[in-house]
Protein: Myb-like domain-containing protein
Amino acid sequence: RTHKKAVVWTTEEEGALLDFLASHLSQAGNGNFKKAMWNAAAAHMAHNYPPGPDNGDKTAESCEQKFKALKKSYYAIANLKLVASGFAYNDEHGAMISLDNANLWDQYVKVMYQAHKDVKPFCNSRFPHFASIELLLPSHGQGWFI
Structure:
């Protein structure tokens, strides 16, 4: 019996997927990419980033799921950047949580877990794809939501 290999994405591969989507944004119909575009994205990824022995194929479905996950991170960071969150977010260093505000961060993530669970990885690390995803969203007049 064979098991499907897990699909592992590097930051570079995520960026390549977002660049591909941005270069084909005009082909998004009704605010969404069609199955054919996700197939093209998978073919692009396979050609430019062939899977290694410990990495599964980046299929159309995995490309679409990766984009959905990246958008969740984008929205978590966008919310964190709002003054209302009480935290300063820096695109280079993340939320810059120190001992002085670690308890507040824990409350933000844990007490309000449903609303803020996707922000947890960005305690002291940046989200490198913020600007790329922002360009794909409707607030820029040409993007889309899933």
In short: The chain is about 45% helix and 0% strand. Residues 11-136 form one domain.
